[in-house]
Amino acid sequence: MNKQFPEYTTTMHKYLSNTELIDKVYNSLSRGIPVPFEWGSAV
After folding, report:
1. What is the DSSP string of 2-37?
2. How far is CA 4 from the centre of its chain?
3. Distance in angstroms (rounded) separating the CA atoms of residues 27 and 6
4. Rounded distance, CA 20 to CA 39, Å?
5. How far apart are CA 29 and CA 35, in angstroms?
6. For residue 38, which of 20, 17, 19, 11 has the smallest C-alpha distance?
7. What is the rounded distance in angstroms from the CA atom of residue 38 to the CA atom of residue 14?
8. Pick from 40, 37, 41, 39: which is nearest to 4 by CA?
9. Nearest C-alpha neighbor of 41 from the set 20, 14, 9
10. pLDDT, tens digit, for every residue of 1-43?
């Protein structure tokens, strides 16, 4: 991610609940910060 968005500092958050993820995305977007993310699931 850092190579794709060198002008931003990216942070990896693991194992967030749905509410925590939505809160973090909303807070970043409300400040005008783009939110790239990768989604994965355990099988």
Report:
1. TTT-TTS------S--HHHHHHHHHHHHHTT-----
2. 14
3. 21
4. 14
5. 7
6. 11
7. 11
8. 37
9. 14
10. 678 778 888 888 888 898 999 999 999 999 998 888 777 776 6
